[in-house]
Design a protein that fits this description.
Length: about 230
């Protein structure tokens, strides 16, 4: 087991957001979290990544407790977080964006660029252009590629297809499919077509809790069951 979350309680001030959340991700698994807006999905990812400190509970990565560690330390231990808002360094070039990821991961720039170009070949045309000029889909593909620099253990991705055109969703889907099995992933996603085609397992979130885990292919393919949590 690569990631294990147990009895996780998280609050913003006096407002409790997560109530005893428990889940796990095995090595090489692609696990999805689905649920309505406000269910606590992003809070869950941010807590695992170290951006939020839990009130109680445990987050264990490869046998080591990381709950409450600073985000930079969690990242050094092999976790990468792709934010929902497609956050790139807009004033830097695409090459410089990749260079920052390479520096953080402790790898040379050339193989880092090769890794991103492998994920998104068309990005090679924009290496020396400001990242702020990229479309939403291009930013998303850059962010996924950048997160894979340095061969991380765990990838946390928040709503990778949100707000994207159908053609770009297909590109993101292709990247996720090609990466499946090579790195463990925990993905928050509302697009059920993507979830049903890629998920090894699915956790449903509702009001800060996980009332259901779908393990069997027949359960994951049951669209009506998934829609009940959206």
């Amino acid at each position: 087991m690569l990631l294990e979350v147990a009895d996780l309680q998280v609050a913003y001030g006096n407002a409790r957001v997560l109530h005893g959340v428990a889940l796990h991700v095995d090595k090489g698994e692609m696990v999805f979290v689905v649920g309505r807006n406000g269910a606590g999905k992003t809070t869950l990812l941010k807590t695992i990544a170290g951006f939020l400190r839990p009130v109680s509970g445990t987050v264990t990565l490869a046998g080591t407790s990381v709950a409450g560690m600073p985000a930079e330390e969690v990242a050094r231990r092999g976790t990468r977080y792709v934010f929902q808002d497609k956050r790139v360094f807009t004033r830097l070039t695409v090459r410089e964006n990749i260079q920052l990821a390479a520096y953080a991961a402790g790898v040379p720039l050339a193989p880092a660029i090769d890794r991103v170009v492998q994920i998104h070949p068309n990005i090679a045309r924009f290496l020396d252009s400001p990242a702020g000029g990229l479309s939403g889909g291009q930013r998303q593909l850059l962010l996924i590629g950048r997160a894979l620099v340095g061969e991380p253990r765990l990838l946390l991705i928040d709503e990778p297809t949100e707000g994207l055109a159908a053609g770009t969703i297909e590109e993101v889907f292709h990247v996720l499919r090609e990466t499946k099995g090579k790195v463990s992933m925990l993905i928050v996603e509302q697009n059920l077509a993507v979830v049903r085609q890629l998920a090894d397992r699915v956790y449903a979130m509702k009001e800060g809790r996980i009332p259901a885990e779908l393990r069997q292919p027949a359960e994951i393919q049951d669209r009506s069951r998934l829609e009940a949590y959206l």
